[in-house]
Write a structure and sequence with these properties.
With about 280 residues, the protein is α/β, with parallel strands linked by helices. The chain is built from 10 helices and 8 strands. Helices cover about 35% and strands about 15% of the residues. Strands 1, 2, 3, 4, 5, 6, 7 and 8 form an 8-stranded mixed beta sheet that branches. Helix 7 packs across helix 10 (about 220-240).
């Protein structure tokens, strides 16, 4: 099973927005309306009720899209807007790095006081892309298991962390699945990173076919989403505070994609990105 982490793959940010200028054309009006109406655009429920958001959603949704898709589009647009607004970055977590984090052998010290997490992450947003087909959510809305591409994150002004997994990004079908989880206080993330995520143990284990051979990682509980996000966001915190032994590589420019049969890799993202790696 392919486990790709050589470069940033096409992201849900790019799949959602139909045109390169969509964000610059639509998003300033969202911020202006939120200020004029005294609405906290960091609140997902308040965000989706803004008229400018509804206008953007009407342009994004297909005419024959089912009514329930409004919620999914609104959820993704919330994160995409804040990624644009905060000039957030795409972070690529390589397989070796992720495995080291999950095993507790990432070679990074404790991030220190809980307040450091809130100080470094509040008011920021990003998308963390996982190695391709390595992490699987086993019950995606009562459907079959889906490969997790990555997750959006946003730290709001009230120091809460909003997360949404993105799964099911496949070349043989359009769209993707969005799996939001309840927000958590930013200063609670160190506890999620260190504690157990499954009752009785066995965090991230999976019984999917081929799991043992390919070393697959499974997600069954919201707690595992929090733990996975906390472990990766810990690196973001450490790098922001200058306390990381293995810092992320400098932002890399988008790469051209060779569509010939010789180049069998996934379509690259057009967005700049940084890569997390470990010396372990």
């Amino acid at each position: 099973m392919a486990v790709h982490d050589a470069y940033a793959r096409l992201t849900p940010y790019e799949l959602l927005l139909p045109e390169p200028d969509f964000a610059d054309r639509r998003f300033p009006a969202i911020g202006d309306e939120a200020v004029q109406q005294g609405v906290d655009a960091g609140n997902p429920a308040a965000f989706v009720m803004l008229g400018a958001v509804q206008g953007a959603l009407a342009e994004l949704r297909e005419e024959d899209a089912p009514p329930e898709s409004v919620h999914d589009h609104g959820s993704v647009l919330y994160f995409v807007y804040h990624l644009w607004r905060t000039a957030g970055v795409v972070v690529v977590a390589q397989q070796k790095t992720l495995r080291a984090m999950l095993s507790g052998d990432a070679g990074t010290p404790s991030p220190g006081p809980k307040s450091l997490w809130a100080n470094e992450l509040a008011g920021r947003a990003g998308y963390i892309q996982l190695p391709q087909h390595l992490v699987w959510i086993e019950e995606a809305r009562n459907g079959p298991p889906e490969s997790v591409d990555g997750f959006f994150w946003f730290g709001d002004a009230h120091r809460a962390c909003h997360l949404a997994l993105v799964a099911g990004m496949r070349g043989d079908r359009p769209g993707f699945a969005v799996v939001p989880v309840p927000p958590q206080p930013l200063d609670a993330l160190p506890g999620w990173a260190a504690g157990p995520a499954r009752e009785g143990g066995g965090d991230f284990e999976t019984s999917l076919p081929g799991a043992e051979l390919d070393g697959l990682i499974g997600i069954r509980t919201p707690a595992e989403v929090f733990k996975l996000a906390a472990l990766l966001l810990r690196r973001v915190v450490l790098e922001r505070s200058g306390d990381c032994a293995s810092p992320a590589r400098a932002p890399e420019a988008p790469r051209a994609h060779d569509a010939s049969p010789v180049s069998a890799g996934p379509t690259p993202s057009a967005l700049p990105y940084v890569t997390l790696y470990t010396d372990k």
